[in-house]
Design goal:
five-stranded parallel β-sheet; 2 domains; 14 strands; five-stranded antiparallel β-sheet; single chain; Argininosuccinate synthetase, chain A, domain 2; 12 helices; alpha/beta; Rossmann fold
């Protein structure tokens, strides 16, 4: 019995005249660029997102030009401010971590890239978008869920699910046969697979595929080891407004500048390294190492300012919602109604999250040295261990305890406890 193809089935070459490719200029996407032209006989528009990853952005333009892409079909967009303002900051208002550790540096970048792919496809009247995510990873899910949420009729081409170039050696051979320029070819041994943006840099593959193997010291790029960090602590003050950092040490900064500065300070003090085995949405366990110095500082500081500005039950409810919110982002559902619903509640909670947190960084550690806010709910007159002048009647606690113990005493009596 045969079935009709669905929208997710590979598009035929007759359907595709122009494709927008998420393009880094590296081996995979350079091969994909040529493969798309050969396989679909189509024009290719390249899109490179500058999310703060560093020097690979402009070389991507030169590479695309060298491979015959016209200047008018090359998009290199500086998205750093939008990335931090509209994606990273909203995520950190929720104190978001996945599986208790991961700060979602890769996950949170994908919905923005998907957004621009769809926008460029509309501008260029393209038939499809394409990406270099493999069929084993989470990114294919994130890119495509985002694309379909923003344009339900978009076609998506995922070469790793179609071709037979399933190793670095085959990719290099394909590139050599077609004179595709590839810099820093590292022979037959696969290097670390790295992804970088303003929030983090991730490392996978190579020796990290054995979870018993310690990450080599030369792998890390953004941070010194805690052992090599300065012997004197670094203090800094971060100022919050509606749950977002707006100034560091009294100097107001844009969102992207805030994160850049915190990365520099954190990295210099050995902050933000992480080595985890995580559960991918596609079903496998994956070992990865991450550097997120600025994000680690932001998470610690945000919880500190919330500790004095949020009502107890609001704070606890946020903590209960956070794991669901983290899974929504990790699994690629940023553009979903459930994320929007959760975001509305989270953002509502941040109206009074204003004030300043003083932090002490020392050899990989982040300590809260102080916090203050005009919206603080902390009342020294109530919390003091000294005479509070009758503000808090300690005798009231007896009735409170007995009422809360009533069900426990009833249960104990039923069980014959104490007889």
């Amino acid at each position: 019995m045969t079935t009709e193809p669905t929208a997710s089935v590979r598009a035929s070459s007759e359907d595709i005249n122009k494709v927008v490719l998420a393009y880094s200029g590296g081996l995979d996407t350079s091969v994909i660029l040529t493969w798309l032209k050969e396989t679909y006989d189509c024009e290719v528009v390249t899109f490179t997102a500058d999310l703060g990853q560093g020097g690979e952005v402009e070389p991507a333009r030169a590479k695309a030009l060298a491979m015959g892409v016209p200047e008018s079909a090359i998009y290199i967009d500086d998205l750093r401010e939008e990335f931090v303002r509209d994606f990273v900051f909203p995520m950190f208002r929720a104190n978001t971590i996945y599986e208790g550790e991961y700060l979602l540096g890769t996950s949170i970048a994908r919905p923005l890239i998907a957004k621009r792919l769809v926008e460029i496809a509309a501008e260029q009247n393209a038939d499809a978008v394409s990406h270099g995510a493999t069929g084993k990873g989470n990114d294919q899910v994130r890119f495509e869920l985002g694309a379909y949420a923003l344009n339900p009729d978009i076609k998506v081409i995922a070469p790793w699910r179609e071709w037979d170039l399933l190793s670095r050696e085959k990719l290099l051979a394909y590139a050599k046969e077609r004179d595709i320029p590839i810099e820093m070819s590292r022979g037959s041994k696969s290097p670390f697979s790295m992804d970088a943006n303003l929030l983090h840099i991730s490392y996978e593959g190579g020796p990290l595929e054995n979870p018993w193997t310690e990450p080599p010291s030369e792998m890390w790029r953004w941070s010194v080891s805690p052992e090599q960090a300065p012997n004197d602590p670094t203090y800094l003050e971060v100022e919050y407004r509606n749950g977002d950092i707006v100034a560091i040490d009294g100097v107001e900064m844009s969102p992207a500048t805030v994160l850049t500065k915190l990365n520099e300070i954190g990295g210099a003090n050995g902050v933000g390294r992480l080595d985890i085995v995580e559960n991918r949405y596609v079903g496998m366990k994956s070992r990865g190492a991450y550097e997120t110095p600025g994000g680690a500082i932001m998470l610690r500081a945000h919880r500190a300012i919330e500790s004095i500005t949020l009502d107890r039950e609001v704070a606890h409810l946020k903590d209960e919602l956070m794991p669901r919110y983290a899974s929504v982002i990790y699994n690629g559902y940023w553009w979903s109604p459930e994320r929007e619903m959760l975001q509305t509640a989270i953002d509502w909670s941040q109206a009074a999250v204003n004030g300043t947190v003083r932090l002490k960084l020392y050899k990989g550690n982040i300590e809260v040295a102080g916090r203050k806010s005009d919206d603080s709910l902390f009342d020294e007159n109530i919390a003091t261990f000294e005479d509070d002048g009758g503000v808090y009647n300690q005798a009231d606690a007896e009735g409170f305890i007995k009422l809360n113990a009533l069900r426990l005493r009833t249960l104990a009596a039923k069980r014959g406890v104490g007889r």
